[in-house]
Specification:
2 copies of one chain form a homodimer.
Chain A lengths: L24 H10 L1 E5 L4 E3 L7 E7 L1 E7 L5 E8 L3 E2 L1 H6 L6 E4 L3 E7 H10 L1 H27 L2 H16 L14 H8 L3 H13 L3 E4 L2 E4 L2 H8 L4
Helix pairs in contact in A: 3-4, 5-6, 5-8, 6-7
Chain A binds a DNA duplex (30 and 30 nucleotides) through helix 7.
Chain lengths: 235, 235
DNA sequence: AGTAAAATCTGACAAATGTCAGTATCAAGA
DNA sequence: TCTTGATACTGACATTTGTCAGATTTTACT
């Protein structure tokens, strides 16, 4: 977690995929000046459960997980966010303490936009307000979706789905099959909501059915069609 | 689902607990005129998965469940809403089809506020916009919370928690112990994310431990302290 | 490159939960 | 009020998943 050369919001490719695209030149310049950019190494906290929010976090480059500790002390990963996403809306807007943590899963550079300037722009710019509402609403929809999947699907389906979620969040290598993911088996288990052993066993099944191959920690999705079908997704 | 005498928003006790409290007299009058009020009988749909939203729904009186069908055809109840709550924000704001259904669990009178007038007020009134964001954010937070609870807690804890959720949503009779809930055991199972038999078994356990009593479908919470402790809630 | 710590993987077993079948009870509607 | 279909409940059993122990491999760091 180090300070470093601050990026310019004006020319930032990440800004244009967020609600900040709704702002005028002056507002962007002001945010660019007031933001705090930091480098987060893998596994370092961007924010943690129980802390009070100080603003929203715009991911300039990298990936984070949004996760939460269960009563039993085990982690559950609720979602991922990457380059061009903003995290931390909900807690700031609800005016509460974080009930989730945000942790870098890769070395990432992330900008904190302070509350005060965020709220001012939301108040003054209805398009930005609507953009924020749109984004939170999407999050709520996918989170609701996930509740049903986690409670009503067997582990095999959930592991297949986790692979697809990882593919969405991190993408594939140039070969078109290798997951660009730094996640451990334990982290995959935290997506699925199960024990690491169960994930490993299911991945072994998939290997023996020639749906995936593995090479150490990395996974190749060699039969996407079948995985999608196993994941049993509708919508 | 019948039309009936339309309530007046101006004097409506439900309005003041929603984002509509942020509006001026003229705007309230306009909404009062443009809304459509309906009576929904138990188990009738306010809206259904797959439909396109036509506005937001303000619950004038009654209770609804927000639920979703799993791939296996079983229902999962995500949340409840009652008198003075508004439902349907997220889908409208995300500009998508409903991915959940809203079903009356009691005879309820509910007002539809059309999209057009909702969006106009959100655009023109920053306080209302922020109020809406606040409400959605709260929903997102409780939904995230629920993911962790559903995946990492054993059934006994989840059933205890479901009883507390029902108490929050429906309240207690004058005796201070009887749940004012029309829910069947199957619906409770849909909150917990399990089979009805498992719920019944757990309730029988609770009975034999003198934590609850039952009388047909109704349940009395005679030892709240113990139930809270079993539910194992933090935050 | 070498080493220590961490992560992956396998098997055996235990525990939790789901499923099925059947009976008893309740509640909504004629 | 009566009746009938739905709901609640119980027990036995199958299945899934979690847990524990231990061997192997990989990764991270010096």
């Amino acid at each position: 977690m180090h300070a470093f050369k601050q990026p310019e919001c004006n020319s930032c490719g990440s800004r244009v995929s967020t609600c900040l695209i709704e702002l005028g030149t002056n507002q962007v310049a002001e945010i660019s000046q007031q933001k705090h950019s930091q480098l987060f190494t893998r596994n370092s906290y961007v924010f943690a459960e129980g802390q009070y929010p100080r603003g929203i976090y715009c991911i300039h480059k990298g990936h984070v997980k949004i996760s939460k500790m269960g009563a039993d002390g085990r982690e559950h990963i609720i979602s991922f966010a990457g380059t061009g996403n903003i995290v931390g809306y909900a807690t700031l807007l609800a005016a509460e303490k974080y009930n989730v943590s945000c942790i870098a899963v890769q070395d990432s550079s992330i900008c904190l936009i302070p509350s005060e300037i965020f709220f001012r722009n939301v108040r003054e710019n209805p398009s930005m307000a609507l953009h924020v509402m749109h984004d939170i609403s999407q999050e709520l929809r996918t989170t609701s979706q996930r509740i049903v999947e986690l409670t009503h699907k067997p582990i095999r389906e959930r592991v297949a789905e986790a692979l697809l979620i990882i593919k969405e969040a991190f993408g594939l290598d140039a070969d078109g099959v290798t997951l660009r993911s730094p996640l451990t088996r334990e982290e995959i288990a935290s997506i699925v909501g199960t024990a690491p052993e169960s994930v490993i066993r299911t991945l072994s099944e998939f290997k023996s059915e020639n749906l995936i191959t593995t090479n150490g920690r990395t996974i190749q999705l060699v039969n996407m069609r079948a995985l999608v079908s196993i994941a049993n997704i509708r919508d």
